[in-house]
Amino acid sequence: ETGVTQTPRHLVMGMTNKKSLKCEQHLGHNAMYWYKQSAKKPLELMFVYSLEERVENNSVPSRFSPECPNSSHLFLHLHTLQPEDSALYLCASSQDPEGIAEQFFGPGTRLTVL
Amino acid sequence: QKEVEQNSGPLSVPEGAIASLNCTYSDRGSQSFFWYRQYSGKSPELIMSIYSNGDKEDGRFTAQLNKASQYVSLLIRDSQPSDSATYLCAVKGGTGNQFYFGTGTSLTVIP
Question: Is the pLDDT of residue A99 over 60?
């Protein structure tokens, strides 16, 4: 595997389900990000992890819970989601969290909440 | 006021022409600027990064930055149909770890 991978690629869940999105980066980077991309809206930064510590949490509802067990893996745990949470969820990584280095994106998880 | 603004388009240019994409940002303290290309159904792919005023060229792509005017642009020379995509402007905020993206400009290169 190379670059940034995400699983699953597609997910359909009910509002009462609990699921997790997984991201893995094979680039040796030390910062990882979760973004939400909805139609006709700009990419929204949700969480930033630098050296496995959360450094940004942009007022994301508590039904989204991130986890970063090590510098290569990032999870987004989902529970009691709403239909408006349906979107493309993108993971990215960069060499440094200060923003000087570019971010590389994974293929995304297309989430549909019924 | 949006942090990063782009003309959503669609922008159409004939094959071989120059495509010009523009972006303005609100945070004067911003230091890092990026252009991403996103094909339909795919994730964003980095094209260019620029950090200082002036032009930066990479093949057919040229990024231009004017911090005084808070303006970033991307020029695509000799446009090809394969350049048809949505182009996202991204700006690293002046403080913290915030990244702001524009809504993107849809470009169509007509053969």
Answer: no
